[in-house]
Amino acid sequence: MAFASYRQVLGLPGVRTLLLVGLIARIPLTGSGMALTLHVVNGLETGFFGAGMVGAIVLIGNALGAPIAGRCIDRYGLRPVMAVTAIVQLLFWSFAPVMSFPVLASTVFLAGLFAPPVFGAVRQCLAAMVPADRYRTAFALDSIGVDLAYMVGPAVAAAAATAVSTTATLYGTGVGLVGSGLVMYLLNPPTRSAEEQRAGDRPVPRREWLGAGLATLLGAVAGLTFVLTATELAIIAMLRGSGATEWSGLVLAVWSAYSIMGGLIYGGMPRGLHPLLLIGALSAVTAPIGLVGGEWWWILLALIPSGLLCAPAISSSVDAVNRRVPAGARGEAMGLHGMALTIGGALAAPAAGAMIDGFGPAIAFALCGGIGLLCAFAALPFQRGGHGPRAGGDRVDVAAGEQMERPLSS
């Protein structure tokens, strides 16, 4: 592995701090869903249907808010967006613990819509702070940070709700979310490189960068998170069917560790792979997992290929989206990428649940893997010979299977 790539990226001014702040700021964001679910189920005693309703409303708000926040960052800068979202989070979470279920369900959409755009902002800032020939390493580190946040956030929320109370957990989540926006406001990392700033701030119409190639790539990204979310549900269903539910936490944690390992390997490779290839490969190795049966140790082994491909697939998709757009639209593009991730996960929960109930987890693995493959293949014709704009007017080839290594200047 080329550890020199990591030393070079982490040695760049501000990058190490940004990645660390991004990791910490994402933890309350990843734990907020668990905190709300446990509060609705245990605190308000409304049941899992009510919790699912609240979760769905939050996801809709997240999906709609991500590109809006990104576009506002492009136009007005990072600080105003972080300030507004932090204020909304402060207002919502100050009152959420004492809200009745109807009031909570009616207002939680705003909390999702105005969620601090930490995920997209960190990626946007990395693209401004890192040379183009180091994007793959930087985005691999970012994906590893996301994996770590998802390993910590929900676990901390669940532990706090169990050991203390769901009310205290909601207040703590609110403090974390407001703190996420505040720390990004204070850090204020650059959203454009010095060269991009010298090029000016001309507004970039969507028609100049949002074409069929990017749109279908985002569709494949949604397919990726559909497969990942469905895999998580199918794992739990398989373990439950074999009487090994108590091993669910360990299996999912090891699966995340595989992803981190894969991200480290991918970020140090001399050349990368096109995201459609990685998404298709991940989907293909997911489909037969159900054949191993429900014993937890077999599932751990069967998850190795998909786990190793998880972080590389996500980081390569971030890289591809970033290289397709000019600097003036980078924030909105990262928001659309986040929107695609959210939509894929939101669609997977009910769809995979229906597959598991109707056909069993083994068939659910196969069907969901097939859906991921279909999304990748459907996007493939639009990538061949497709080109995305450089901010300076040049073009960069994004043909399927070709890694985009030439630098982009904006």
How does this structure look, described?
The protein has 410 residues and is mainly alpha-helical. 75% of the residues lie in helices and 1% in strands. It is built from 16 helices and 2 strands. The chain has a two-stranded antiparallel ribbon. Residues 385-410 have low confidence and may be disordered.
Helix count, per DSSP? 16
**Low-confidence runs of at least 5 consecutive residues:** 385-410
Mean pLDDT: 88
Task: Report the sheet with the most strands, covering strand number, pairing sense and barrel closure.
Answer: 2 strands, antiparallel
Radius of gyration based on Cα positions: 20 Å
Distance between the termini: 31 Å
Name the structural class. Answer: mainly alpha
- Beta-strand percent range: under 5%
Fold blueprint:
Blueprint: H1 3-10, H2 15-43, H3 48-76, H4 78-95, H5 101-113, H6 118-129, H7 135-163, H8 166-187, H9 194-198, H10 212-241, H11 248-267, H12 275-286, H13 296-302, H14 304-324, H15 330-359, H16 361-383, E1 387-389, E2 395-397
Antiparallel strand pairs: 1-2
Give a short synopsis of this structure.
The chain has helices at 3-10, 15-43, 48-76, 78-95, 101-113, 118-129, 135-163, 166-187, 194-198, 212-241, 248-267, 275-286, 296-302, 304-324, 330-359, 361-383, and strands at 387-389, 395-397. Strand 1 (387-389) and strand 2 form a beta hairpin.
